[in-house]
C-alpha cells in the first residue's frame, strides 16, 4: 500500500497529505475544484518547511488531480476529507464505490457522522470506515477508527496499522455513535463552558484559563480517568464514591438544555479576538501550529526520558 | 503580609506550603493531628529537592503547630485545606472566626462548596473567599478565586495579588456556583466519559488517549473557546452556527442522567492500573509530579520564545 489518495484539498485534506507524504507515501490529492490546488500546495510547502529538512523531496510525492477515476487508480487507501454534510458524504462515497476494486480501504475524516449513515447501500461497504483526525492531523497524533457494523475487521486492522506506520496514534471505537468519543467529550465540556459563559459566571478568558492553565496540565499526559485516579487517596473507586454525587448534580443541572445562544457567540468571539491580539500575533494559525509542533516535541521528549 | 497560615497538613496543604515558602513567605502549618507532620515534611522535602537548589533554606521557613491560635497569630493570609465536607468547613471557619482580627484573609481550598455555605454567620465573613487550587498547586498554576456575595472586594483583590506574587495564575469567578468553573468543566467531560465507558463504546485507555493524545494538544495552550475559534473558517460564530446543532444533540442525549455506576468504577480502576503498570513505574505520583514539572517548564519556555 504505497499510494494514498486524499479526497478534498482543504485544510484537513492538505494536512493529511503532509502526514502521509512525510512518512514516505505517494499521495494523490483529488478535488473537483482545481482552483483550490494552489492554496493547498502553499500550505503544504509552508508546513513541510517547519517539519523536515527534506521538504523538497517530500513534496515531490504529492500530486493533484480533478479526475476522481485518476485519483483512485492504484490507490491502497483513500482518506476522504470533504465538507461535512451527510449528502456530501453520500455523494462522494457513491462515486468512489462505482470506481474502486476489492482491495482499497475507503476511510472518511468525518468528525461526527457515523460511517453507516453513508455506506449502507454501497457494494464496497465492507471496505469503508471512519478515520477521524484532530485538526490538524500532521501535528496532532490521535485518530479515531470507527468501523460500521459491516466493516470487514481486516479493513479496520489494516487502516489502524497504516496510522501507526505514519506516526499517528489510532484508537478503535467499539461501536458507532454520533460524534464518536473525542467530539462527544469536547462537546460535553463545551456545553458546560457555553452555559457558564451565557449565564455570566465567568468570561471567555477565565474559562479558557481554567482549561489551559489548570485541567490541561494533567490531561497533557494523563487522560481523564487516570487523572481522577490520582485525586482520591484510594484511587478511582474512592474518587467515584466521593464525587459521583457532585457530578450527578452537574448532570442534573443540565437536564433541560437549550442550544448555544448566537448573540453570546458574537460576544465570545470578540473576547477570543482580544485574547489573540493581546499576543501581538499577525497570524494566529501560524502561532497555533508552532505551539502544536512544540507541544508534540515536548511529549516525544518527555515520554522517552 | 509575610506570614501565611496553612490549615491542614495533607497533600493539598503541604503543596500550598511549598508554593508559598518557595516564593519567600514564612508558612505556619496547622493540623490538629500532630502525627501527620512527619509525612507532610517528608513530602515537602522531596518536592522542594526537585524545585529548587535552595531546598534547605526554603524548608526553614515552614513550621508546624497543633494549636490553632498559635497558627493564626500574625498571619496575613490563611489557606484552609482540610477534608471537604460542609460540616468540616463550617467548624474550622467558626473556630478561626473567633480567633482572628480584621486584617487577615481567610481563603478556603474548597473544590466545590461555595464560600457562602460556611461563612454567612461569621463576624469576619467579609474576609472569607474561595481560592481553589488544582492538585497539586505547587506544580499547576491555576487558582479559582470565588468571593461570597459579602466578601469585601479588596479581600478578593489582595488575595489575587498574592497568588500572582507566588507565581500562580489566579482567575476571578463572577458569582458563586457549586463546583465553580474548573470542576464543572471537568465534571461535564467526566460524565460523558463515564457514560461512554459504561455503555461499552470505548475502553478507559481509548477515552484517556482521546484527551491525552488529541484534545490536550490544543488545550495545553488554548482554552476551549479559543480552540473552536480555529476550527471553522469564519471563527467562533461560524463554529457555533455549524456545530451548535450537534452539541445540542449531545446535551439532549444526556437529559436523563444516572449516577456513575460503582461496578463500572471497579472495572475502570483495573484498566487504569494496567495503564500505569505498563509504564513500569513504581511510584505513579512521583512520575506524575515529574511530568507536571516538565510540562510547566515547557509552557514557561514556549510562552517566552
Description:
- Two copies of one chain form a homodimer.
- An eight-stranded mixed beta sheet of chain A has the order 3-2-1-4-5-6-7-8, with helices on both faces.
- In chain A, helix 7 (153-165) links the parallel strand 7 (142-147) and strand 8.
- Chain A has 13 helices and eight strands.
- By secondary structure, the first copy, chain A, is α/β, with parallel strands linked by helices.
- The mean pLDDT of chain A is 95.
- The relative contact order of chain A is 0.08.
- Chains A and B meet through strand 8, helix 8, helix 9, helix 10 and helix 11 of A and strand 8, helix 8, helix 9, helix 10 and helix 11 of B.
Key phrases:
globular, 305 residues, N-(1-d-carboxylethyl)-l-norvaline Dehydrogenase, domain 2, homodimer, Rossmann fold, alpha/beta, 13 helices
Amino acid at each position: 500500500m504505497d499510494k494514498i489518495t486524499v479526497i478534498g484539498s482543504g485544510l484537513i485534506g492538505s494536512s493529511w497529505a503532509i502526514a502521509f507524504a512525510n512518512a514516505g507515501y505517494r499521495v494523490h490529492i483529488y478535488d473537483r475544484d482545481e482552483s483550490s490546488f494552489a492554496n493547498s500546495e502553499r500550505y503544504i510547502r509552508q508546513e513541510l518547511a517547519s517539519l523536515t529538512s527534506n521538504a523538497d523531496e517530500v513534496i515531490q510525492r504529492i500530486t493533484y488531480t480533478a479526475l476522481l477515476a485518476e485519483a483512485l487508480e492504484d490507490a491502497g487507501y483513500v482518506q476522504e476529507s470533504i465538507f461535512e454534510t451527510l449528502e456530501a458524504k453520500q455523494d462522494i462515497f457513491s462515486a468512489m464505490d462505482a470506481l474502486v476494486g476489492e482491495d482499497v480501504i475507503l476511510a472518511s475524516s468525518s468528525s461526527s457522522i457515523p460511517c453507516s449513515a453513508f455506506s449502507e447501500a454501497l457494494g464496497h461497504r465492507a471496505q469503508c470506515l471512519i478515520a477521524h483526525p484532530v485538526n490538524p492531523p500532521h501535528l496532532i497524533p490521535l485518530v479515531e477508527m470507527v468501523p460500521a457494523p459491516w466493516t470487514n475487521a481486516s479493513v479496520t486492522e489494516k487502516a489502524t496499522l497504516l496510522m501507526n506506520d505514519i506516526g499517528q496514534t489510532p484508537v478503535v471505537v467499539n461501536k458507532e455513535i454520533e460524534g464518536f468519543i473525542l467530539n462527544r467529550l469536547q462537546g460535553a465540556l463545551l456545553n458546560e463552558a457555553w452555559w457558564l459563559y451565557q449565564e455570566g459566571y465567568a468570561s471567555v478568558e477565565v474559562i479558557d484559563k481554567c482549561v489551559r492553565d489548570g485541567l490541561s496540565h494533567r490531561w497533557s499526559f494523563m487522560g481523564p480517568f487516570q487523572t481522577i485516579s490520582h485525586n482520591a487517596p484510594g484511587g478511582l473507586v474512592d474518587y467515584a464514591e466521593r464525587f459521583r454525587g457532585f457530578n450527578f448534580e452537574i448532570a442534573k443541572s443540565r437536564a433541560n438544555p437549550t442550544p448555544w445562544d448566537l448573540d453570546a457567540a458574537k460576544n465570545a468571539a470578540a473576547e477570543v479576538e482580544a485574547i489573540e491580539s493581546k499576543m501581538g500575533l499577525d497570524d494566529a494559525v501560524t502561532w497555533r501550529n508552532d505551539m502544536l509542533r512544540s507541544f508534540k516535541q515536548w511529549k516525544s521528549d518527555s515520554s522517552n526520558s
